[in-house]
Write a structure and sequence with these properties.
Shape: globular
Number of helices: 14
Number of strands: 16
Distance between the termini: 58 Å
Oligomer: single chain
Strand content: 15-25%
Order of helices and strands: EEEHEHHEHEHHEEEHEEHEEHEEHEHHHH
Structural class: alpha/beta
Strand order of the largest sheet: 5-4-3-6-7-10-14
């Protein structure tokens, strides 16, 4: 495909935005580049003026994969969702469904066609196991981009038992390796771009001694030699370890086979629905509230809306990076439209909007909902307190104006909770996975039966 690219840029100062450090800090990007990129190519244009591309979304049935698939389709791209529905099977295993009633994939794609007139193809395939089928699919479809979400995404679940640890390694690492091998076997290395959803957890928390750069860090080697190397890995769970191993695989396949790869180190996702998923009840995104799969802010918002004291682990001094699920989809498309050239090193973005300390978020939600904050023993092996300063200039320079934490936006989540409150199982709220025996012993007195939904809140919700 022949592309003519016209780019105009202008710099503008961003207003200062408070981050979640113990003292307000600077916004992570001091300047913003507004980019107006026109891409002209055979095959037409997407609705935003960029090239219409064929995009294969691996793991497109999941919490991030589904809204991203809809967003890309809405933007005019040709979308193929590949998923083995493993996350739905894990719901059955854990005895805890999504708070929102999610439709089957068949119903989802039919509803999208009905509402928008746009087609999304669904293929049931296990990327980690069905290698030959993956190669065949790639040969048939010849996607311009493969977006790789198809990994077990929960750190607590990855630490639950030896079985879940082994599954997470087998699924995530084998899937990443299979994807690279399949692209080579399908003879797509010249044309196909991999976009992988990674995690900020590959860096560790508070170990850099300053701002965490985007993937690569300047170092001084023995003898005074200066170099720019891949940031050292410091995983905090088996899940995070698989993302570190993925990162090394990307480096190898880029160096050895010149695959074009973008790795997105994403913060903790919050929110539920997007402008696309609210178009029809059958398109609703999943909402996880349990101790294994519920992300921290969504858990707090659910608990607050149900009148349950917020479950803050340890001191709540953990500082983490956050991003709204709508921005996840937007960032994916920015990455799709800005692939590295063949031969260039793996492109790495920090996919975050801002950083906040967990206890500060808890206080924000508590003030909004009127519930108490309950500090409980931490099931995780992690530092009780940490600072976190993260660079996110690349996405901002490519036009992302990120959604930041705002109590006005919290109402979207709390309304979802109120609507589907009858589907909540309060016994699933407390943590059920522990990093080691010591953490399990410290949490032994946590009683799932002690969690009760406040009757007054129920009545207010019903009213």
């Amino acid at each position: 495909m022949r592309l003519i690219i016209i780019v105009t840029t202008c710099l503008a100062l961003l207003p200062s935005l408070a981050t979640g450090f113990s003292s307000p800090g600077k916004f992570l990007a001091n300047t913003k580049t507004t980019t107006n990129t026109a891409l002209f190519a055979e095959g037409g244009e997407a609705t935003n003026g960029a090239t219409k591309k064929k995009v294969m979304v691996l793991g497109g049935d999941g919490f991030c994969g589904w809204p991203t698939s809809l967003y890309l389709s809405d933007q005019g791209h040709d979308v193929i969702v590949v998923d083995n529905l493993s996350r739905r099977n894990i719901d059955t295993e854990l005895g805890c469904d999504s708070l929102t009633p999610i439709s089957s994939m068949e119903t989802r794609v039919e509803a999208w066609k009905e509402v928008t007139g746009k087609d999304i193809t669904f293929v049931n395939l296990d990327v980690a196991k069905d290698f030959d089928a993956l190669v065949t699919l790639l040969k048939e479809e010849k996607p311009d981009t493969v977006v790789h979400f198809a990994e077990q995404r929960a750190a607590p679940y990855s630490m639950k038992t030896s079985k879940t640890k082994r599954y997470t390694i087998d699924n995530n690492v084998s899937g990443a390796n299979n994807l690279c091998c399949a692209i080579l076997d399908a003879d797509l290395s010249e044309t196909c771009h991999i976009v992988h959803l990674g995690t900020m957890g590959v860096y560790g928390y508070g170990t850099s001694g300053g701002e965490i750069p985007e993937g690569y860090i300047d170092v001084t080697l023995p003898g005074g030699r200066e170099a720019n190397i891949l940031h050292p890995a410091y995983p905090g769970s088996i899940y995070h370890a698989t993302k570190c191993l993925d990162a090394l695989l990307w480096q190898f396949y880029q160096k050895n086979d010149q695959l074009r790869i973008t790795d997105l180190h994403q913060g903790i996702v919050w929110g539920t629905n997007t402008p696309q998923t609210i178009k029809d009840e059958r398109l609703v995104n999943r909402f996880d509230y349990d101790g294994d799969y519920g992300t921290v802010l969504n858990r707090f918002l659910m608990q607050g809306a149900m009148g349950v004291p917020l479950t803050v682990y340890g001191t709540g001094g953990q500082t983490r990076a956050f991003i709204h699920v709508t921005d996840t989809a937007r960032c994916i498309e920015i990455a799709i439209n800005n692939p590295p050239a063949k031969g260039e090193r793996v492109e790495i973005f920090n996919q975050v909007a801002e950083t906040r300390r967990v206890r500060d978020i808890a206080q924000l939600v508590a003030e909004m909902t009127g519930v108490d904050v309950n500090f409980i023993p931490n099931p995780r092996q992690e530092a009780a307190e940490n600072e976190l300063d993260v660079a996110n200039r690349k996405f901002c320079n490519l036009g992302l104006d990120p959604i930041t934490l705002d109590t006005g936006l919290f109402s979207e989540v709390t309304e979802i909770v109120k609507k589907y409150k009858s589907r909540c199982n309060p016994k699933k709220i407390l943590p059920a996975s522990f990093w080691n025996k010591k953490r399990a012993e410290e949490c032994a007195e946590l009683d799932p039966d002690s969690i009760k939904i406040d009757v007054d809140v129920k009545e207010k919700v019903d009213a």
